[in-house]
Amino acid sequence: METIKIPEDINLHRRRFFGTAALSIAAAQLILSGSADAQPSKAKPVELPKIKPGTNTSFGPLKQIDAGVLNVGYAEAGPADGPAVILLHGWPYDIHSYVDVAPQLAAQGCRVIVPYLRGFGTTRFREAVTVRSGEQAAIGADVLALINALGIKRAVFAGHNWGGRAASVAAVLWPDRCAGLVTVNSYLIQDLSRAM
């Protein structure tokens, strides 16, 4: 599969809107509740910092890790021992959907992982013979393979479009690994055979 290059003149406002919306919700969930199992708090809600779109334009150096059938390229921010948040981009966007949100979550003490989905950026298939697939089960399995490779036991999964679908599939198939789920989608998991 060929890597898709996104022109810089793509609608940056829309791209940042999805990232900001998804991660503002994830940050609120993570910070205010502490975990998906927590009871509602009677404490005063935490004021989340305002995000000024365009403040950040890139991530630091990208990392690479073998995870399942992929060698995944990803950005990372925040402390290694913080609560993990996996931010999953949609199509045709990329990790820069979260360039303004990742630093905000990292500043709150979260370990933020922003991977390129299969077919994007520096993420590559490890073997030439691996079947290329964009099926919802495949991209959901990629999330599990990534958190396993990174040694993450539980994480908040957040995403939009394909990333939202990947987050949802991972949460449904491996609920014990999901501390919370945030999606910005009009559709999530589909049974395509019944949809016909």
Could you describe the 3D structure shown?
Strands 1, 2, 3, 4, 5, 6 and 7 form a seven-stranded mixed sheet that branches. This protein has five helices and seven strands, in the order H-E-E-E-H-E-E-H-E-H-E-H. It has 196 residues and is α/β, with parallel strands linked by helices. The protein has helices at residues 12-33, 102-107, 136-150, 162-173, 192-195, and strands spanning 63-67, 70-77, 84-88, 111-115, 124-125, 155-160, 178-184. It starts with 11 loop residues before the first helix and ends with a helix. Helix 4 links the parallel strand 6 (155-160) and strand 7 (178-184).
End-to-end Cα distance, whole Å, is 27 Å
Which structural category do the helix and sheet elements fall into? Answer: alpha/beta
Q: How much helix, percentage-wise, in residues?
A: 25-40%
Low-confidence stretches: 4-10
Evaluate the radius of gyration.
16 Å
Whole-number mean pLDDT: 81
The number of helices is 5
Main sheet summary = 7 strands, mixed
